Amino acid sequence: MMGTAAAAPAPAPGQDVIQPPDQGLRNVAELPNAHALAGFRVGVTSDRRAEDLISALERRGAQVLHAPALRIAPVEEDHLLMQDTAAILNARPDITLITTAYGMRRWCEAADAHGLGEDLMDILATSRIFVRGPKARGAVRAAGLDDAGISHDERTATVVDMLLEEGVEGLTVAIQLHGYTDAEQLARLRDAGATVLTVTPYRWIKPEGAEGKVGRLIEAVIARQLDVVTFTSAPAVDALWSTAHELSLFDALVAAFKHDVVAAAVGPVTAKPLEDAGVRPIMPERYRMGALIRLVVEHLSRNQIQRFNTALGELEIRGRSVILDGERVDLSPTPLTIFRALAAAGGAVLPREALQECLPEAPGEHALDMAISRLRQALPDPSLVATVIKRGYRLNV
Questions:
Q1: Residue 173: which of 203, 157, 188, 194 has the closest Cα?
Q2: What is the pLDDT, as a whole number, of residue 28?
Q3: CA separation (Å) from 132 to 32, 108, 160, 270?
Q4: How many CB atoms lie within 10 A of CB 172?
Q5: CA-CA distance, 268 to 302, in Å (whole number)?
Q6: Secondary structure, 3-state, 188-217
Q7: 3-state class percentages of the chain: helix first, strand second, coil last, to nearest 5
Q8: 209-243 confidence digits (pLDDT tens)
Q9: CA dihedral 60, 61, 67, 73 (to 10 degrees)
């Protein structure tokens, strides 16, 4: 859509731990300039807690396109969870790896609902528990358990490094997955001689109507109608790639992310499927939603806003908006591309032939004349674009 502790809200699931609203977003309200994102368009791919993210972006002036790529299957629909839990109870693992707070809580809740809660707690109490990050540690301790170690960078691979350094040959290792199987880390443990069991307390499924919404987001990225797309889980990236392949738009989508549209990932695990496709996302130092929002604001403010002094006053280009002495208008993609080219020339004359290359379809003399006319009509002052007879056009500096 466009524009719109046990008692505390559970943090969002996925590859990277995300704080609940009272922790992760409270500092975002302190960001300077309530209109820092005015003129910018941001795509949001998350489902759970998307309202928090969308609200924070819109309060700063952004226009949001929401296309949830995946949602979590209700626990009552997931019979595999209890099958995996029963296997772990029978195996009595020597080591248990907890990757997310949400997953730990949901696992315990599901076990309780099926009469296995006490058995699970007994088994975990005899197992050495390792956790991926502080949120996971908090959930383990809230369950009355303790952990034997924690990753310093909130990565599963780092915990596996710790286990391999100790040695796991002949041991049984249970791993709570987070809706996305890290096959490489499971293989590393098995190759080192461990018996590996997994449990997935939540699983990703496509929301109703997801294909249409995600398809519209893909088309918007390819058309350069979005400035940033945010990702808070690796499965959401995979779902986006999968839909793009189905639409035969994968190459065009990746090209747009490589050159024009910024991908913003909440953490390194979410970033991996982007990086595997050759996309280099921006990523906050702290893998939290609040930090992600702050990063989006800072990145766009520092890198995507252009300011010029013109003969008609101070000019600012931010996203698709052009602001002249406080008067703001939004430009459609083709006029905006032409105006950016004129602004980048800094008052120098751009030949008509060069400007015709900005036209997406049917470049030619008449098409350029029409595009310049539409641009002038849309600008706060048409004389911002000056005609240089027989040569071309320039920004009226």
A1: 194
A2: 38
A3: 33, 18, 10, 15
A4: 17
A5: 23
A6: HHHHCCCEEEEECCCCEECCCCHHHHHHHH
A7: 45, 20, 35
A8: 666 889 999 999 998 889 999 998 888 888 888 78
A9: 30
Asked whether the predicted pLDDT for residue 285 surpasses 50, the reply is yes
User: Token pair of 200, please?
Assistant: 């997935």
One-letter amino acid for residue 334 of the chain: T
The whole-angstrom distance between residue 154's C-alpha and the CA centroid of its chain comes to 17
Closest by Cα among 154, 106, 151 to 129: 151
Q: Answer yes or no: are the C-beta atoms of 58 and 50 closer than 8 Å.
A: no
Strands 172-176 and 95-98 turn out to be parallel
Give the type of residue at 384: L
Residue 231 contacts residue 45 (beta carbons within 8 Å): yes
Torsion angles phi and psi, residue 222, rounded to 5: -65, -35
CB contact at 8 A, 130 and 98: yes
**Mean pLDDT across the chain:** 84
Return the half-sphere exposure (C-beta side, CA atoms, 13 A cut-off) of residue 176: 28
Are the C-beta atoms of 305 and 358 separated by less than 8 Å? no
- Which token pair is 27? 């500092």
Tokens read off for 186:
């499971």
Residues of the chain with pLDDT > 70, as a percent, come to 87
Q: pTM for this one?
A: 0.64
Tokens of 125: 């109490």
Radius of gyration of the chain (CA): 25
* pLDDT for residue 70 is more than 70: yes
Answer whether 203's CB lies under 8 Å from 78's CB: yes
- Pairwise CA distance, residues 322 & 326, whole Å: 9
User: Residue 57: which H helix or E strand, with range?
Assistant: helix 50-59
Coil, strand or helix at 43 = strand
CA–CA dist 264, 234 (Å, integer): 12
Rounded Cα distance, 126 and 119, in Å: 11
180 and 213 Cβ atoms separated by less than 8 Å: no
Residue 6: burial class (beta carbons within 10 Å; 0-12, 13-18, 19+): exposed
